[in-house]
Amino acid sequence: MPKENKVFYNPIQQFNRDISVLGIRAWSQLFEAEARNQRYVPANPSEPYIDVIEALSASGLRAVRYGLEIPRVRSVLANDFSESAVDAIQRNVTFCGVEDTVHAHEGDASMTMYKHRGRNVHVVDLDPYGSATPFMDAAVQAVRDDGLLLVTCTDLGVLAGNGYPEKCFAQYGGTTVWSDACHESALRLVLNMVAASAARYGRAIEPMLSLSVDFYVRLFIRIKTSPRQVKENASKSMVVYHCRGCGSSVHQPLGKCDASDQKYGYARGPLAPENCDHCGTPHHIAGPLWAGPIHNDAFIDKMLEIEDSDDFDPAIYTTAPRIKGMLTMARDELKDVPFYFSVQQRAAVIKASSPPHRAMVSALCNAGYRVSGTHAHAGCLKTDAPYSFIWAVYRRWLADMHNGTVSHNLKAGAPGATIVRDLAAKVDAAAADDKVPEISFADHPRALELEQMRKSKFVRYQQNPQKNWGPRPRAISISKQM
After folding, report:
1. Domains in the chain: boundaries
2. Helices 320-332 & 297-307, crossing angle to 10 degrees?
3. What is the 3-state secondary structure (H, E, C) of the chain?
């Protein structure tokens, strides 16, 4: 590496590089198994076949690792727009002895990928400084059917913040949900942008793994030419009515789909009133966002299987403990439930002590609802329970654990004041209503299971690896590409 800041390199991204190697290996094994079943390839293929484009290669470290660590890789095109970066790539390729596999290339990232529209590659990796949006049109055309697209976006100030809604819409064609689940909202914004880009060419996406990591999002997406599946995009897109007062949300699909009969139509709406049903605060509208699953269980299972094998050397993959922890959390997430909520933040709305996770999960599960954690935030839960029941649980908690005493800090007219107004009457009415499930904080097996996961030694979330860690400054010589 040159001593000057001419080539971008970030050691903190080792987790990104490690899990990318693992993800491509998992994809290749699933791809080969499916191909054998459909007789696309011989039963026991042995020749290298995987072609990769790393469109924004910088130092070439990731491309070199792909060439060395992915079985059956045939070629890796390590492209960059910067002459100094390409020089660094070539030095690193030569130093590591992968000249036969990894090829340095100087050129515009999009134009390089456009040249592969007629000769698609199996894997395209986009890891830019900032947003991947400018390169997406070329990327979705360069990947072959059932190939893998890897996407990083590091502009979380736009994707997950609340200060740049106009820039977010300009970059991603939607606005984010500023809430507890803003990082999952970021994932769903990027997925919706990729789906829209691919749909223009009759191509559909299947998210295999979608992670919010540190200061970026990382997505593993399978691409397939399927005009029929493209028709389902409207039903897999949504806008979100988000209450800026109490944090509740309502999800509005943009289309209707009966996949069994292949019938498509208009969605009905609006599903939410102008003001929140729970606290009376006006809704904010966010989206459109990807509404479908963001993980694939079979893909995660294969990644965990490889991670646990003897040839996944922890001396090389030093972030393996965190990989296992995050994959385990992602595998356990509810796949059909968008967004999570913070148990502590919802309690703060009504100025009450927070129920322990164990008690909250038990109350939800005892009422027949499903609950999971999330890889994106340590203190949050996903559930298919409606917010009407979630708030009923908090009111019961306030009545039982605070003897019905409302905090003097809860001012009249505040969102929380509306939720707990006439607390005793609301609690009694809920208890007498046959339509409202009974609320019980007695330990539920699922609550004990999640508590055991939380107390396990899995490294699920980022631990600061060094002082002042972060995305690092942009390299000077490649700024013209951005």
Report:
1. 11-335+466-481, 341-443
2. 150
3. CCCCCCCCCCHHHHHHHHHHHHHHHHHHHHHHHHHHHCCCCCCCCCCCCEEEEECCCCCCHHHHHHHHHCCCEEEEEEEECCHHHHHHHHHHHHHHCCCCCEEEEECCHHHHHHCCCCCCEEEEEECCCCCCHHHHHHHHHHEEEEEEEEEEECCHHHHCCCCCHHHHHHHHCCECCCCCCHHHHHHHHHHHHHHHHHHCCCEEEEEEEEEEECCEEEEEEEEEECHHHHCCCCCCEEEEEEECCCCCEEEEECEEEECCCCEEEECCCCCCCCECCCCCCEEEEEEEEECCCCCCHHHHHHHHHHHCCCCCCCCCCCCHHHHHHHHHHHHHCCCCCCCCEEHHHHHHHCCCCCCCHHHHHHHHHHCCCCEECCCCCCCEEEECCCHHHHHHHHHHHHHHHCCCCCCCCCCCCCHHHHHHCCHHHHHHHHHHCCCCCCCCCCCCHHHHHHHHHHHCCCCCCCCCCCCCCCCCCCCHHHHHHC
According to the model, what pLDDT value does residue 478 have?
A: 44
Ramachandran class of 161: left when φ > 0, alpha when ψ lies in -120 to 50, beta otherwise: beta
The Cα 93–Cα 362 span in angstroms is 55
439-457, pLDDT tens digit by residue? 999 999 999 999 998 887 6
Residues near 313 by Cβ (< 8 Å), separated by ≥ 6?
none
- CA dist 298 and 34 (Å) reads 12
- For residues 17 and 59, the answer to whether their CB atoms sit within 8 Å is no
Which superfamily, per CATH, for 11-335+466-481?
Answer: Vaccinia Virus protein VP39 (3.40.50.150)
Report how far apart, in Å, the C-alpha atoms of 36 and of each of 44, 75, 88, 192, 359 are: 9, 22, 39, 31, 48
Can you read off the two tokens belonging to residue 387? 């917010």
What pLDDT does residue 472 have? Answer: 56
Strand arrangement of the beta sheet that strand 237-243 belongs to: 249-253, 237-243, 283-290
- Predicted confidence (pLDDT) per residue in 145-184, tens digit: 999 999 999 999 999 998 899 999 999 999 999 999 999 9
Query: What is the C-alpha to C-alpha distance for residues 314 and 444, in angstroms, rounded to an integer?
Result: 36
258 HSE (CA, 13 A, CB side) = 5
Q: What angle do CA 402, 242, 280 make, to 5 degrees?
A: 60
Which ranges of the chain have pLDDT less than 50? 478-482
pTM of the entire predicted model: 0.92
